[in-house]
Specification:
Pfam families: GFO_IDH_MocA, GFO_IDH_MocA_C3. This protein has 393 residues and is an alpha/beta fold. It contains ten helices and 17 strands. Helix 6 crosses helix 8.
């Protein structure tokens, strides 16, 4: 395809693999207005970068993101680094006229997220686009849930009940990886997985979280230092004898209010023993309810409140039909898809926004909205779950 978008990706960890898979696939599955050229992968450690480039399918490598951004032959910067570098890279890339896709959460602090949002607004005047990677919006069932809520199928939203549960650090000997360090990750379970359910809540309801009260806890306060950086897994060999302080939350519990008058509860934890990557969101409305469970990726639970007596209760919608979001491009009706597909859908939507000159969603401003809610939860938790309003963007 002519005029392909030339992608430069910064980072090569778990999300680097997920985004690479998306860039490799997106133009082969969807009919895109622009082609994709997986031009350059960028990272500091050559020993990890070169094999990642080969494995993931990138043409070239760069060791310094500044050099990457300065290149004239790059159109898009895809940021899949830990949160401490998002702001610096994104702001520089936008100033250089590159479209930016940035992993979630947008930044480690509200101040950084505000600066990124301002940079995105400035760049937008020249047709440059910026999007944040809240990938679960691109689960077909989640997008369909949103459409059903918007169509009034469950009436006014009364409750959102959302939980994102993992258990990968239950072992106190699990090393102090970057996700457990505040200066690198910003926060712990709250920002890493709580951010997803806060964003999903605002996305599926079309409403804003206006206030929160939060509790956070760090159950294991010291851990062995890793001798090599590791993402979600670390073997015995990657640990050293020395120990360091865990500076983020292990778990967060949040009460919230929605702009439409509904109430919400959120739970984000890495200590839900036995729960690997369990995300569930249920929306109860005045006319019915809808629920999504990530472990049942291709389904929605639906209760139409008007259905009485022997037919009441939740029924299962199979989100596998060509009329459902994203599905038509994949397999014949009834055939299921999974986790990696959401990154492909995300890449598809971003390419369309760039080519068609539309504002991508979630924009940096929307992601700043999530950051403001995360920040309010942390401040509330520091004040024994005091009620705090979440400022509007
Ligand atoms: C780690 O907890 C993590 O990889 C998150 O960072 C992702 O956003 C989520 O998709 C899976 O879990």
């Amino acid at each position: 395809m002519s005029n392909p978008l030339r992608i430069g990706m910064v980072g090569y960890g778990f999300m680097g693999a997920a985004h690479s898979q998306a860039w490799r696939t997106v133009h082969r599955v969807f009919d895109l207005p622009r082609g994709i050229d997986m031009a350059v992968i960028c990272g500091r450690d050559a020993a990890q970068l070169e094999p990642a480039a080969r494995k993931f399918g990138w043409r070239e490598t760069e060791r310094d993101w500044r050099t990457l951004i300065a290149r004239k032959d790059i159109d898009v910067i895809d940021i899949v680094t830990p949160g401490d570098s998002h702001a610096e890279i994104a702001i520089a890339a936008l100033a250089a006229g590159k479209h930016v896709l940035c992993e979630k959460p947008l930044a480690n602090t509200v101040a950084e997220a505000e600066a990124m949002t301002a940079a995105a607004a400035r760049a937008a005047r020249d047709g440059v686009r910026a999007m944040c990677g809240f990938s679960y919006r691109r689960v077909p069932a989640v997008a369909h849930l949103r459409a059903l809520v918007a169509a009034g199928r469950i009436g006014a939203v009364r409750h959102v009940r959302a939980a994102y549960l993992q258990d990968w650090i239950v072992d106190p000997e699990f090393p102090l990886v970057w996700r457990l360090q505040k200066e690198r990750a910003g926060s712990g379970a709250l920002g890493d997985i709580g951010a997803h359910i806060l964003d999903m809540t605002q996305y599926v309801t079309g409403e804003r979280i206006t206030g929160v009260a939060g509790l956070t806890e760090t159950f294991v306060r010291e851990r062995p230092l890793p001798s090599a950086s590791s993402g979600l897994s670390a073997s015995a060999e990657t640990k050293s004898q020395a120990r360091g302080r865990v500076t983020v939350d292990d778990a967060a519990i949040v009460l919230g209010r929605l702009s439409g008058g509904g109430l919400c509860t959120f739970e984000a934890t890495r200590f839900a023993t036995g729960r690997k990557n369990a995300l569930r969101i249920e929306v109860n409305g005045s006319l019915g309810s809808l629920a999504f469970d990530l472990e049942r990726f291709n389904e929605l639970e639906y209760h139409a409140g008007a259905r009485a007596g022997t037919e009441s209760g939740f029924t299962r919608i199979l989100v596998t039909e060509p009329e459902h979001p994203y599905i038509a491009a994949w397999w014949p009706p009834g055939h299921i898809i999974g986790y990696e597909h959401v990154f492909t859908h995300q890449a598809r939507d971003f390419v369309h926004a760039i080519a068609e000159g539309t504002e991508p969603s979630p924009s940096f401003a929307e992601a700043l909205g999530v950051q403001l809610a995360l920040d309010a939860v942390e401040r509330s938790a520091a004040r024994h779950a005091a009620w705090l309003d979440v400022p509007a963007v």
